[in-house]
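RECORD TYPE: inverse folding
INPUT: structure tokens
STRUCTURE:
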């Protein structure tokens, strides 16, 4: 019986590609870099938002741009005309994490710790007793006085959030394990300082002007099970759909017929876990700006033609929100509906 599913060998290959993608994407910034590299290898052209796009966009062209932790990629059908539709898949690049606060270093009872804040709604107890590290974006002053954004992913264990030993907790506390995000989630850093970031970036400590850093697990994603049929990874919500939507767009761009008359677009937004209301979130202008810029490049030069073409495109378009959902947990089946 045909299932519509790929052969097991193909599924395993896709799973291996997925976990490689996830492990290379500890932050939205890294996801955009990894996704951008995939697109460039597939023949996509990176656009700059401060440049004029009209001389660049052509029917049959493949393009993408990055804004902060958001990536938008699209393929223009060979027969596309102003007013035609946009077929869009939306996903998000961020996940619940612990982020370093701007004034992060502290000490207590001989231990160096760092101040963190909870970003999004996470299962914070799962962060305890793991070897953690740091990843993020750092603003560095260059030798010529300019500033550059550089990515950092320290791959060795740096931090740990230790549980309180059983001898100092009551049975009631163990049964209701509910860490206080302000006091109990402060990782022990060890005897290191900003020198770690400077060493990773090969720059002087004084050249580091700002950063946005998050904690990340050092344990790699794994494929497991009797037949290697299961997968465990961090940030599946929603790097899973960041990967699958990008891959689908690349395959479609290679296989689309000459009669393709629409724009296929993937929009991978940041800040979904905290409400999406930002310049790079789904609640911001980036989606409408992307459609408007592409549409206007193909609109006639007559007055109001670009605006009318965009309105026509809006009525002929659709957007799929691709997000993660929970399968039934066999140990907690009562949490799910039977039918």
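DESIGNED SEQUENCE:
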């Amino acid at each position: 019986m045909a299932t519509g599913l790929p052969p097991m060998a193909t599924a395993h290959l896709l799973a291996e590609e997925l976990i490689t993608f996830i492990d290379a994407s500890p932050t939205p910034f890294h996801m955009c870099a990894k996704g951008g590299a995939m697109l460039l290898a597939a023949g996509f052209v990176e656009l700059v938002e401060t440049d004029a796009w009209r001389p660049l966009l052509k029917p049959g062209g493949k393009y993408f741009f990055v804004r902060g932790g958001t990536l938008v990629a699209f393929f223009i059908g060979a027969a596309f005309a102003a007013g035609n539709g946009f077929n869009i898949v939306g996903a998000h690049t961020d996940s619940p994490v612990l982020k370093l606060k701007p004034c992060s270093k502290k000490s207590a009872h001989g231990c160096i710790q760092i101040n963190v804040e909870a970003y999004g709604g996470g299962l914070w107890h799962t962060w305890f007793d793991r070897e953690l590290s740091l990843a993020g974006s750092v603003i560095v002053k260059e030798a010529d006085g300019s500033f550059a954004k550089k990515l950092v992913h320290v791959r060795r264990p740096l931090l740990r959030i230790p549980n309180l030993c059983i001898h100092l907790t009551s049975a009631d506390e163990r049964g209701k394990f509910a860490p206080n995000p302000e006091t109990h989630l402060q990782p022990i850093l060890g005897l290191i300082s900003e020198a770690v970031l400077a060493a990773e970036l090969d720059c002087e400590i004084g050249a580091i002007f700002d950063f946005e850093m998050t904690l990340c697990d050092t344990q790699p994603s794994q494929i497991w099970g009797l037949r290697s049929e299961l997968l465990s990874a961090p940030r599946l919500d929603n790097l899973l759909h960041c990967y699958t939507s990008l891959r689908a767009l690349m395959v479609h761009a290679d296989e689309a017929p000459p009669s393709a008359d629409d724009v296929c677009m993937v929009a991978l937004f940041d800040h979904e876990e905290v409400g999406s209301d930002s310049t790079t979130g789904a609640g911001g202008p980036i989606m409408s700006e992307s459609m408007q810029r592409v549409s206007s490049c193909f609109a006639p030069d007559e007055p109001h033609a670009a605006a009318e073409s965009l309105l026509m495109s809006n009525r002929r378009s659709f957007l799929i929100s691709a997000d993660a959902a929970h399968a039934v947990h066999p140990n907690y089946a009562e949490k799910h509906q039977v039918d």
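NOTES: The first strand starts at residue 45 and ends at 46.
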